[in-house]
Write a structure and sequence with these properties.
The chain has 257 residues and is α/β, with parallel strands linked by helices. It has helices at 66-70, 101-108, 142-151, 193-201, 223-233, and strands spanning 4-10, 15-27, 30-36, 52-55, 74-77, 81-83, 88-94, 114-118, 122-128, 132-137, 158-164, 179-185, 212-219, 241-246. It has two domains: 4-122, Translation factors (Elongation Factor Tu (Ef-tu), domain 3), CATH 2.40.30.10; 130-246, Rossmann fold (3-Layer(aba) Sandwich), CATH 3.40.50.80. β10, α3 and β11 form a beta-alpha-beta unit. It starts with a strand and ends in an 11-residue tail after the last strand.
Length: 257
């Protein structure tokens, strides 16, 4: 008998205008922002791996028709935290040099700048409770990994492997005491190369015991070694998430839902 299942839920597609309320850089290229607005009252994101689409119009998002908003530049982002009663939404974004529209907006936009929020349209939720956890990724999947860690029970057992430019303490990541956290410096290597090397090196001795939920998400090249690890550990691929959150050289790429 399995300890957990994954279930897909559909959500009503709602578009909401919001404004930038605050920002805080955790490291030089990783920023947390808070959005606020009355339209965010009632916002919800049932799944840790949810994606919302953030639209960056030239004008006030609140004054635009839906079709006008959809025509604006946009990117997919994972919601980090929200207060449905107060109408606030927190996001964390990696600032990809001059290429990332969302990251550059989060880093440079004036407080009060307008955006539109669409979704999440669908959610993948964990029903039941995994007996063990494997979470692996980079800064782009860190919001989802934070959310998964927050839903773990206090006695959870597992392994979290994170590749990042900064030091682990800078990101203020927390997990239950029984979950081992490994921070891997990216260094001069290509994105996800250090993470892939660590995944390739994991053995049966590293496998958490019991019915394990695995979440592996980073640059697209992580997919093949992530799936290979599931096979080595005898994990059910239909009850795991392995995906590319972004693709090097493709600014329009977005993670599959």
């Amino acid at each position: 008998m399995t300890a957990f299942t994954l279930a897909r839920r559909s959500n009503d597609l709602v578009f909401r205008p919001a404004r930038l309320a605050s920002r805080r850089f955790l490291v030089a290229d990783y920023v947390r922002v808070r959005l606020e607005g009355e339209a965010l009252i009632g916002f919800d994101s049932p799944g840790a791996d949810d994606h919302i689409r953030v639209f960056f119009p030239e004008g006030d998002a609140a004054s635009l028709e839906i079709d006008e908003l959809r025509a604006a530049p946009s990117r997919e982002v994972t919601p980090l935290a929200w207060d449905a009663a107060a109408g606030t939404l927190d996001l964390e974004l990696l600032v990809h040099g001059d290429e990332g529209i969302a990251g550059r907006w989060a880093a440079d936009a004036a407080i009060g700048a307008s955006v539109g929020i669409g979704g999440p349209r669908g959610s993948l939720v964990i029903e039941g409770e995994p007996e063990g956890w494997l979470l692996a990724g980079d800064e782009t999947s860190l919001p989802a990994i934070r959310r998964l860690a927050r839903r773990m029970p206090r006695d959870a057992r597992g392994l979290v492997v994170l590749e990042a430019n900064g030091a682990g303490a800078d990101y203020a990541f927390e997990a239950p005491e029984g979950v081992r956290i490994e921070w891997i410096a990216r260094g001069a290597g290509s994105p996800s190369s250090a993470l892939i090397a660590r995944l390739d090196a994991l053995t049966a001795d590293d496998r958490p015991s019991g019915d394990v939920f695995a979440f592996v998400a980073a640059e697209q090249s992580v997919v093949k070694p992530g799936r290979a690890l599931l096979e080595r550990w005898g994990l059910d691929a239909d009850r795991a998430v392995v995906k590319g959150y972004w693709r090097r050289g493709d600014a329009e790429y977005h993670a599959p839902h």
